[in-house]
Amino acid sequence: DVKVTQSSRYLVKRTGEKVFLECVQDMDHENMFWYRQDPGLGLRLIYFSYDVKMKEKGDIPEGYSVSREKKERFSLILESASTNQTSMYLCASRPRNYRGNTEAFFGQGTRLTVV
Amino acid sequence: GQQVMQIPQYQHVQEGEDFTTYCNSSTTLSNIQWYKQRPGGHPVFLIQLVKSGEVKKQKRLTFQFGEAKKNSSLHITATQTTDVGTYFCAGISGTYKYIFGTGTRLKVLA
User: Fold this and answer.
1) C-alpha span between A26 and B82 (Å, rounded)
2) pLDDT tens-digit profile of A18-41?
3) Any A CB within 8 A of B92 CB
4) Which of A56, A58, A49 is nearest to A93 (CA)?
C-alpha cells in the first residue's frame, strides 16, 4: 500500500518563526509536490521537485523554500511565518512519467496556524 | 498563468438527485485527472482522461473530456451520502505540472 506521510497533522506557530514541514514517501517516486489548500482557491502549487536536489517554483513560492536531499523526503520551509500562511498544506508524490499519465498520491495534510 | 476553474463552488443536493461539476482550462491540456477529497481527508485519485471527447464511467460516475481538451465534467447519477466531499479536476500541462481546479464541494442531504 502506497504511503505519503506528513510529519504533523496540526501545527501552531508564532509569527516570525521558521517552520519546517516534512513529507516522506515510501514509493520511490521521483516527483514530489507541496500544495496549500484554502477555501474557494483549491490546491495551489508552492514548489515541486522532480529529482533529488532539484526543485522548481510553483505558482505561489513567495515566503517558502524547499529541500530535497534524499529521494524519499521533501521538506517545505517557511522562512519567517506570517499569519497569511495559515492554511492546510498537502504533500504529494508521483512516479516519473514523461507523458504525465500517473496519479498523484497525497499525504494526510498539515493544518498550520500562525498566530 | 494557466488557470483551471471549476463550477459550481458548492452544491447541495437531496439524496437521489443528480450532480454535475464542470472544469474549464484557459489552455489546452494534455490530459485531465479527477480527485475526491472526503471531509477531513486528503485528495484521492478517481480517474484520468487522455483523448479528446473521451467518456469514462465508474458505476454512478461519468467523466467527460471536451473535444478541444480544455474542459471536462463529472456527473454523478442518483447521489448517495457517501458521495459527500470536494471534487477536484487537475489539468496536466507539460511533464510535471498539475494545475488543480478550485474544487466543487458537494453536500448530500438525506
Assistant:
1) 29
2) 999 999 999 999 999 999 999 888
3) yes
4) A49
**From A41, A101, A107, residue closest to B42, measured CB to CB:** A107
According to DSSP, the β-strands at B85-93 and B97-100 are: antiparallel
Instruction: Write out the DSSP string of B36-75.
Output: EE-TTS--EEEEEE-STT-EEEETTEEEEE-TTSSEEEEE
Confidence band of A17 (pLDDT split at 50, 70, 90): very high
Query: What single letter denotes the amino acid at residue B107?
Result: K
Measured CA to CA, the distance from residue B107 to residue A3 in angstroms comes to: 28
Whether B31 and chain A come into contact, CB under 8 Å, resolves to yes
The residue to which cell 461519468 is assigned: B62
Cell of B86: 470536494
pLDDT confidence band for B97 (50 / 70 / 90): confident
